[in-house]
Amino acid sequence: MLSLLVAVLLSSSKSVIPPDNWSCANDVEVWCAVDGCAAKAEGEITPMSISARRDGGFSVCAYTGCWEGQAEVHDLKGRLLWAANEAPFSTNPDGSSTDVSLLIIEKDGVGFVRVGGIASPLLCTREVSDQ
């Protein structure tokens, strides 16, 4: 009887993000604005390091700092989406911030990030946590 109750509760609950974290990096750098997108030449690429946690915490690091914060997280049938408004850049003294969007396709380990003009594809790795 207890197992039936647990099964009913689990089936009626909203989908939750799997208990894991993600690390992503870019092989190319793409900049987009209202007038179009352009890829940087191979020698001009800024490496990015991205981490996203199941609790919504994220960091998108490039240049000399990171955009960091807490995002809304959605599991859209194997597409994980982190969306944050006004994430601050850690080394910007004037306090400016920008919106961050991160999408990861779970089965492929491929993602996309859009932050501060950068709109780049990513390669991502799942890191299963013990919790």
Q: How many strand elements?
A: 11
End-to-end C-alpha gap:
27 Å
Going by helix content, strand content and strand pairing, the class is mainly beta
| Overall form | globular
Mean pLDDT: 82
Q: SSE order, as H and E? A: HEEEEEEEEEEE
Number of helices: 1
Multimerization state: single chain
Low-confidence region ranges: 1-15
Total tally of structural domains: 1
Question: Percent of residues in helical segments?
Answer: under 10%
The percentage of residues in β strands lies in over 45%
Strand order of the largest sheet: 6-5-4-1-11-10-9-8-7
Largest sheet, in brief, is: 9 strands, antiparallel
Radius of gyration in whole Å, from Cα?
Answer: 17 Å
Short key terms for the protein model shown above:
single chain, 131 residues, two-stranded antiparallel sheet, 1 helix, globular, disordered N terminus
Task: Describe it.
It is a single chain. Helices cover 8% and strands 54% of the residues. By secondary structure, it is mainly beta. The chain has one domain (16-128). The longest helix is centred in the N-terminal third of the chain and has 11 residues, at 2-12.
